[in-house]
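Q: Structure tokens for this one, please.
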Amino acid sequence: MTAIITVANQKGGVGKTTTAINLSAAIADKGRKTLLIDLDPQANSSIAFYNSGEISSSMFDVLSDARVTMASVIKPTKDPNLFLGPGRLALAKLEQVLAGQFDAPYRLKDALAPILKDYEYVVLDTPPSLGILTVNALVCSTHLLVPIQAAYFAIEGTDDLLETYERIRARPNPSLKVLGVVITLFDKRTNISKDTHGQIRSVFGEVLFKTKISKNVRLEESPAYKETILTYAPKSPGAVEYKKLAAEVIQRVEENRTTRRAEDAA
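A: Here is the predicted structure, written as tokens:
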């Protein structure tokens, strides 16, 4: 069964796209065929691999027109195990385009169905909002991963995200699970980061990943060179940390699969 992981937080500037890009790359680096889907109208996950002029069709076309297939928009990356479903600014218009359409929340799930057998992992980068794009991601996903910045007011806004998660679980996707919460932009030199880490741990407990993603200038630089952190600075703290996070993610996914098989057998 393909693991479909939505990376979401309605609060902007928390390292969501950085996490989607580099977690995907780190999972692919472990030999798992991975598809990164860019659902953010800012399209930063896409720009990290391609110039905007190199992207002719995107996830907007897939979600707005049932005749456009996922297979037709997927692009390769430099990593043979990593593929991209690119986004474009046009995604900002999707809410309008799909307004009133009964199948609006299921467009991505339907589009993904024919190609899921080709990938072990699908990672979804979502916009910093809880609109139709994030809802589409959660409806089709097996797991939710929440990046939270190590800063004051870090947990602010997660209540709304978790409320949306519960609503999705209540009806359209009861098998959706919180895979974990990852602390990003962590600076061990500051008391703020240390205090926030303790606060986040007290709220989320065992769903908090052990790996923390540190503030790292290499992580900010790598997209400008059309590289992930694994190829741009493979020995940097960012590369090491995302590899550790990928290992934790894979372990949790496998544990969830084992638990589910046991439940199904019972």
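A few notes: Residues 3-265 form a domain with the Rossmann fold fold (CATH 3.40.50.300). Residues 248 and 258 are 15 Å apart (CA to CA).
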